[in-house]
Amino acid sequence: MNSDQMTLFLRVAATGNLSRTAMETGISQSAFSRRISALEKELHTRLFHRSGRGVRLTQSGERLEKYAIQVSALLDTATREMSESLRQGPSSIIIAAPPTIARLIFGTLGKTLKRDYPGIRVHFKEGLGGDIQEWLGTGEIDAAVVYLPPHHPSLKVDLLIRDSMHFVAPMSFGPIGDSFPVERLADVPLVMPTWPNGLRILADTLMASHSRTLNVSMECDASVGITKQLVMEGCGCTILSMASVQDEVMRGLLQAAPLAHPDVYRDVAIVTPKNRPPILKLRQIIETVREVIFALVKNGLWGNATIVR
């Protein structure tokens, strides 16, 4: 006995006519009669008295009708609640980002998610690239907005924007021009993170392509804010995205110029783990993240990043 049989049974009980119910459901009368007979055979009882004027419930049919009504109501409730749940999105979501990206997106993204999914519980985490990859691997987070790591075979990647890298110097450094040649990084003392930070890997790779090495005067694995403070104090220069330093540049505390010959950039993507079951409506959440980031770029709030189509 299944829900389809219960539905057919209730429709016959309501109409009292097999041929009319068969017509309404688009099932041939002979097939419809076979289904009712099969149900009666399974339950070892007659459910309907049949006559030339139609059918009416037997005592057994009346007892079954009570259960069938309860089953139908329960199925309707389950369908309605599941539909409402799908419209509302997931009950919770954990999203991570490195500090530079977190500062740019978390405020606007949190506001947008609460507006579009009022019942959602949002949890934001901030961490460095290596931490975020570990969290994705262990299932501690559901998604992350990151500078794309060099190797990501275990991640699903949704590429969003291209963020150009800038040479950043204290005001005391002197004029740096409209662009800064990559090969000159070997001649300038730099404040840089250690391996395997993605920015350090990028910088070392660039220097290797010019058969030169970075001139690292100080290493800093703290926040971007600390790196900027060290540069402002004259401890060296650094490499960052314009979005990371645009406030300090506008206030005259730092100066920045895009790295050139060739142009240097890092890709920003939404990443999710491949080895986890899909989260209900995660694609809708990712689409919301995408829209928030695109709006920031279009409004000039993400340095001079460009959208990747």
Question: What report would you give on this structure?
Answer:
The model has no long low-confidence stretch (mean pLDDT 87). The protein contains ten helices and 13 strands. The protein is of the alpha/beta class. The protein is rod-shaped, with a radius of gyration of 32 Å. The protein has three domains: 85 residues, Winged helix-like DNA-binding domain superfamily/Winged helix DNA-binding domain (Arc Repressor Mutant, subunit A, Orthogonal Bundle), CATH 1.10.10.10; 93 residues, D-Maltodextrin-Binding Protein, domain 2 (3-Layer(aba) Sandwich), CATH 3.40.190; 105 residues, Periplasmic binding protein-like II (D-Maltodextrin-Binding Protein, domain 2), CATH 3.40.190.10.
Low-confidence segments, ≥5 residues, pLDDT <50? none
Bulk shape: rod-shaped
Instruction: Determine the fraction of residues in helical runs and give it as a percent range.
Output: 40-55%
What share of the residues does DSSP label as strand, in percent?
A: 15-25%
The first-level CATH class name of the largest domain: Alpha Beta
